Give the backbone structure.
Amino acid sequence: MEVSAILDAPCAPEALRPWIEDLLRYPEWLDIVPHAVVAPAHGDDAGPAWSVDLRGRLGPFARAKRLRMVRTAHDAHHARFERAEHDGRQHAPWVLDAQISEVGEGSRLTMTLHYGGRLWIPALDRLLAEEIERSRPRLLERLAP
């Protein structure tokens, strides 16, 4: 399952960068990430790690998941986070990829969330897309000078 969302923002790409490169900032603007904290480093990590709670609600049903995410790619216009648990168990992959590009006098943020597990239902695709849509105004508000 993969869900993508695009946000056009009236700011330079550099203004978006701090909001996508550090998962600690995601709870400030992204509804599906209500909580994130720095996780202890592990020798196999490709970059810094966070413990992240993901939450979604579909009608009366809510689903929550805690993941240990590691930043595996990072430059001025890109951040990629991948699930990296170190508990000896097999876990479904989660990948969050954020790309920033310059568009005219502003910028475009393209976010893609990939879930590789088997416990996903089609309605949750819609839920995830709606959660991301609701978070757009919150991020735009934080980007305003």
Q: What stands out?
A: The first helix runs from residue 13 to 20. The mean pLDDT is 88. The longest strand covers residues 61-75. The chain has one domain: 2-143.
